[in-house]
C-alpha cells in the first residue's frame, strides 16, 4: 500500500470517527431536551433539561464544526450535520436506543399498528420522526383518493430554512404506499412521520413538489416544453420509476399525470396506496371485480380482470402521447355521457387519441407500442429505458418540435374548451378528471376513441422497423439489455 492509499484510508477512518462523535453528541442533546423533539409521543419523559433549544443547538453546531476544522476536514453542513440529525431521529435509531416495543407501545393508539408494521417490514431505517411542534401554516390542499392532504411549513431546529411539506393521515392504504415507495425507491419524496397533536393521528410527511404535478405543468405551459430532448428525458425518468417498481415485483395500478410530481427538474411517480405484488394484481382485480383508476389510463385487459406490469406500461403510453399532444382529459362524465359513448361521434370527442402531426415517426411508434391492445406486444419498462436512452443520447442538445405540433395543440385545446362549455350548458359544471372506483362490469371501454395504426407486433420489432426514421447516428434497437439499477441511500 503506497503513501497515497494510506492517506486516503486515514482520511476515511478519521471522517467516520468524527461522524460517530457527532452522532453521540446529537444523541446526548436529544436525551437532554426530549420535549423539544416530541419524544413524549414515543417514550416516557420526565424533564426537558435546563437552557433553551436555540442556545444548545448553536453550541453543538459550533462544536461539530470545530471537530472537522481541527482535523483538517472541510465541514459539509448537509452531510456532516443535517444528515446525521436525520439518522439520529430515524425510527431505527429510536428503536435501538429505547427499544422497539417501547417505541411502538408509547405511540398514540391510532398510529400504533402502522409503527409496528414499519418495524416488521424493516422500513425503520427510512422513517424519520418529526415532532408536531415543527409544523406551522397548515392548509388543506385537496384529497388524493380517500385521504385528505395538507400543506405545511416544517422548520427543524437543526435547519433554520423552512421546508414545504405535504401531510397525509396514515391508514392501511397509506401504509401500503410507504412500504412500496420505501422498498422500490427508498426515501425519494418521502420524509417521515409525525403525530397530530389534536387528533392523535399518525401522519406521513412528504416533500412538497416545487412545480406541482405533471398535469399542472402541461396545463400551465402547453407550449413551453416542446423540445424533444426535454420530453425524452421526462419519459426516461418515468420509465425508470416503473423499472424500479417492477424490479421489486410490484405494480402501481394508478399511473396518470397527477400522480407524477415535478420537483427540482425531476419527475417522481407517487401514490402507491393501490400498488400490489405483480403476481397478485390480476387475482386482486378478479376477486374484487373492481378497479380504482382514471380514464383513459386504465388498460383494456383490466375489464377482463387482468392486471400486469404491461398494464402500467399502457398508462405510461397515454402519458407519452400527452407529452406531445398536451391534451388534458376532462371529467369522465363527459366520456360516459350517452352522446359520447360507443357509437357516438368520435372525431370531435375530447378523449380521442390519434397521431400528432409533426412528431417524428420513431416517437409515434413509442406511444403506439405502449398502447398496443395485446399486453404482450407492449415493452417492459426496462426495455423501453434502453431503447429510449439510446435515442435520447443521440439527440442534439435542443430539438424543437415541428410547428405542426404547436398547431395541433392549439386546435385540440380550443376544441376541448368548446366541448366542455357546451357540455356544461346542458349538464352543468364539468369537474376535473379524477381517479374513481369502477366495478369491472361498468368500467367503460375507451378503445373506440383510438385511431392509431396498431401493428400487433412485439416492441423490439416495432422499433427495429422504425430505425429508418431515427437520426442515422442512433444505434440499432434489436437487442436491448437491462439498464443499470438506480441506488439510493437510507437515512
Automatic annotation (TrEMBL):
Residues 471-491 are annotated as: Disordered. The keyword Transferase applies. One of its GO terms (molecular function) is protein serine/threonine kinase activity. It comes from Hesseltinella vesiculosa. Residues 135-395 form the Protein kinase domain. Keywords: ATP-binding, Kinase, Nucleotide-binding, Transferase. Gene3D superfamilies: Transferase(Phosphotransferase) domain 1. This is Kinase-like protein. PANTHER family: PROTEIN KINASE DOMAIN-CONTAINING PROTEIN, SERINE/THREONINE-PROTEIN KINASE TNNI3K-RELATED. InterPro entries: Kinase-like_dom_sf (IPR011009), Prot_kinase_dom (IPR000719), Protein_kinase_ATP_BS (IPR017441), Ser-Thr/Tyr_kinase_cat_dom (IPR001245), Ser/Thr_Kinases-Pseudokinases (IPR051681).
Amino acid at each position: 500500500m503506497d503513501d497515497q492509499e494510506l492517506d486516503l484510508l486515514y482520511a476515511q477512518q478519521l471522517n467516520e470517527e468524527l461522524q460517530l462523535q457527532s452522532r453521540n453528541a446529537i444523541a446526548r442533546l436529544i436525551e437532554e431536551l426530549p420535549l423539544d423533539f416530541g419524544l413524549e409521543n414515543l417514550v416516557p419523559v420526565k424533564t426537558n433539561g435546563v437552557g433553551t433549544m436555540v442556545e444548545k443547538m448553536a453550541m453543538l453546531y459550533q462544536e461539530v464544526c470545530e471537530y472537522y476544522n481541527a482535523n483538517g476536514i472541510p465541514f459539509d453542513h448537509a452531510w456532516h450535520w443535517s444528515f446525521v440529525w436525520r439518522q439520529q431521529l430515524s425510527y431505527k435509531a429510536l428503536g435501538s436506543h429505547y427499544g422497539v416495543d417501547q417505541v411502538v407501545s408509547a405511540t398514540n393508539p391510532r398510529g400504533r399498528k402502522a409503527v409496528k408494521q414499519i418495524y416488521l417490514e424493516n422500513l425503520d431505517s427510512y422513517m424519520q420522526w418529526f415532532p408536531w411542534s415543527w409544523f406551522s401554516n397548515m392548509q388543506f390542499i385537496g384529497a388524493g383518493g380517500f385521504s385528505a392532504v395538507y400543506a405545511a411549513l416544517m422548520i427543524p431546529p437543526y435547519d433554520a430554512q423552512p421546508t414545504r411539506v405535504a401531510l397525509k393521515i396514515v391508514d392501511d392504504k397509506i401504509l401500503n404506499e410507504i412500504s412500496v415507495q420505501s422498498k422500490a425507491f427508498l426515501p425519494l419524496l418521502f420524509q417521515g412521520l409525525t403525530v397530530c397533536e389534536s387528533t392523535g393521528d399518525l401522519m406521513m410527511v412528504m416533500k412538497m413538489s416545487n412545480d406541482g404535478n405533471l398535469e399542472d405543468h402541461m396545463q400551465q405551459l402547453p407550449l413551453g416544453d416542446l423540445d424533444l430532448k426535454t420530453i425524452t428525458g421526462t419519459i426516461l425518468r418515468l420509465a425508470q420509476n416503473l423499472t424500479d417498481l417492477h424490479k421489486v415485483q410490484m405494480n402501481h395500478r394508478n399511473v396518470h399525470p397527477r400522480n407524477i410530481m415535478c420537483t427540482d427538474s425531476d419527475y417522481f411517480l407517487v401514490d402507491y396506496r393501490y400498488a400490489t405484488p405483480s403476481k397478485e394484481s390480476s387475482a386482486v382485480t378478479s376477486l374484487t371485480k373492481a378497479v380504482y383508476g382514471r380514464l383513459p389510463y386504465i388498460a383494456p385487459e383490466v375489464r377482463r380482470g387482468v392486471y400486469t406490469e404491461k398494464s402500467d406500461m399502457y398508462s405510461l403510453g397515454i402519458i407519452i402521447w400527452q407529452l406531445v399532444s398536451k391534451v388534458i382529459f376532462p371529467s369522465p362524465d363527459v366520456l360516459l355521457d350517452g352522446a359520447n359513448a360507443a357509437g357516438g361521434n368520435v372525431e370531435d370527442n375530447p378523449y380521442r387519441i390519434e397521431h400528432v402531426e409533426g412528431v417524428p415517426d420513431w416517437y409515434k411508434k413509442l406511444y403506439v407500442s405502449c398502447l398496443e391492445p395485446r399486453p404482450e406486444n407492449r415493452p417492459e419498462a426496462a426495455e423501453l429505458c434502453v431503447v429510449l436512452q439510446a435515442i435520447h443520447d443521440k439527440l442534439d442538445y435542443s430539438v424543437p418540435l415541428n410547428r405542426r405540433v404547436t398547431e395541433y395543440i392549439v386546435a385540440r385545446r380550443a376544441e376541448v374548451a368548446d366541448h366542455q362549455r357546451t357540455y356544461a350548458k346542458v349538464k352543468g359544471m364539468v369537474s376535473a378528471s379524477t381517479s374513481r372506483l369502477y366495478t369491472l362490469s361498468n368500467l367503460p371501454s375507451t378503445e373506440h376513441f383510438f385511431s392509431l395504426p396498431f401493428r400487433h407486433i412485439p416492441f423490439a420489432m416495432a422499433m427495429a422497423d422504425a430505425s429508418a426514421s431515427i437520426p442515422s447516428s442512433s444505434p440499432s434497437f434489436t437487442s436491448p439489455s437491462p439498464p443499470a439499477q438506480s441506488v439510493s441511500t437510507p437515512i
